[in-house]
Amino acid sequence: MRQSVVAAFVLMGIVTYLPRCLPLVGLSRVRLPRLVEDALRYVGIAVMAALVAPDLAATWGQPPWGLGPRLAAAVPAAIVALWTRNMAWTVVVGVAAYALLLRGVPLG
Fold it and tell me: End-to-end distance of the chain based on CA atoms, in angstroms?
């Protein structure tokens, strides 16, 4: 491998690593106001919802029940998530429900 290619890989690694590392190192000792800390707890949930919602809505209007298989599988997964508060069980139920719906097995 040529030295220029290796140098490019190293520089790309540094360029992608620094913007992620510097805020963590620089702000690790900064104490945020309680209101900001409380609000930041919901950032992960909001990002996940923003990523998942368009995919769930993409099959709207299709069977089963006009929800589409993705959104229909999300219903039992959401119920398990609210009931158990366990991410592993939520994923297992969601994947199983989606697989069953793709095979044509009705859930209800």
Answer: 58
